[in-house]
Amino acid sequence: MAAWLEELKEAAPCPVLPGEPSAARASYRAGGPFEALALPASSAELSRLMSLSSSLGVPVTVLGAMTNVLVGDKGLPGLTVCTAGMTGLSLDGTSLRAAAGEPWDSAVRAACGAGLCGLERTSGIPGTVGGAAKMNAGAYGQETFDTLSEIEAVDRRGERLLLQRSGLRWSYRAVEGLDGLAVTAVVFSLKRGSPPALEAERERILAARAAKQPLDLPSAGSVFRRPPGDYASRLIDACGLKGLTRGGAAVSEKHAGFIVNTGGATAADIRGLMDEVRERVRERTGVELRLEQVLLGDF
After folding, report:
1. Which residues of 185-221 are buried (b: 16+ CB within 10 A; e: fewer)?
2. Active site residue 95
3. Active site residue 292
4. What is the pLDDT of residues 287-299, one digit of tens each?
5. Which residue ranges form the domains of the chain, and what is each CATH number?
6. pLDDT tens-digit profile of 246-255?
């Protein structure tokens, strides 16, 4: 065991686990081990972890529920911090504050139940609030930054920051100004609406997801970003790539924008299939698909 890991385990305010398999946490159910995995339960613990790892010179990767992430089969070096245990929601008038590890859909459900609109069409998006803020997650015409007002975060030294929406730049599935920061909570400014109408819209969106997406198999959602004026899934389908396989990974027959683990897929299988799909689409259409998912570690 590395010397830094021994020191960190002894001084950390939360569990630090060596050699934990990423496949047990990733929605793809594939991937190699973390060199070390820390599980903070609060922003105070996260702040202390960041400070300790900085003093030890240890590289840090901060993850949430790993619904948009794939770790290579050879693993991820350094310290990985999982914020999924940092949960909690609070409402104050039309303001909703959610901790970074709170499941995104539970925040949406709470807003709809309280008669607050602005998040309802993002119902069913997997992952955490912190992850949604990092990538400006969205669906069906709504995005995280439509209603986001503040982000609470800690920097590499463990110092706490409050970031206003006006100080950040965001675009489709991308946010500038958060590099090197770990999100601890997000505040949304919503509008009053009708609880029954919001609940009905939520149910409609959830039903549409179930009808169109392969929710019965492990995946990490949409693999590629939407190209300008088109859809990655349409291009992949038009190239006849539905059902294309590599090892245990397959392009979903139900939704061409998804790669699914049909059983026993390795990270290399999934990564290889991503690369093959991109190459075939580029050859046949001239469009260069860009990954929406995050690849980490050594494949």
Report:
1. bbbbbbeebeeeebbebbeebeeebeeebeeebbbbb
2. no
3. yes
4. 999 999 999 999 8
5. 3-85 (3.30.43.10), 89-198 (3.30.465.10), 214-296 (3.90.78.10)
6. 999 999 999 9
Gap between the Cα atoms of 13 and 86, Å rounded:
14
| Token couple for 264 | 């026993």
User: What pLDDT was estimated at residue 190?
Assistant: 98
Residue 30 confidence class, pLDDT cut points 50, 70, 90: very high
**Among 27, 42, 222, 252, the one annotated catalytic:** 222
Is 173 marked active-site? yes
Which one of 97, 121, 173, 202 is the catalytic residue? Answer: 173
- What is the identity of the amino acid at 196? P
Give the separation between CA 24 and CA 74, rounded to whole angstroms: 15
Cα distance between residue 220 and residue 261, in whole Å: 10
- The predicted structure's pLDDT at residue 262: 98
**H helices present in the chain, as ranges:** 3-11, 43-56, 104-113, 129-135, 195-212, 232-238, 267-285
Judged against a pLDDT cut of 90, whether residue 108 lies above it is answered with yes
Q: Which helix (H) or strand (E) holds 96?
A: strand 95-99
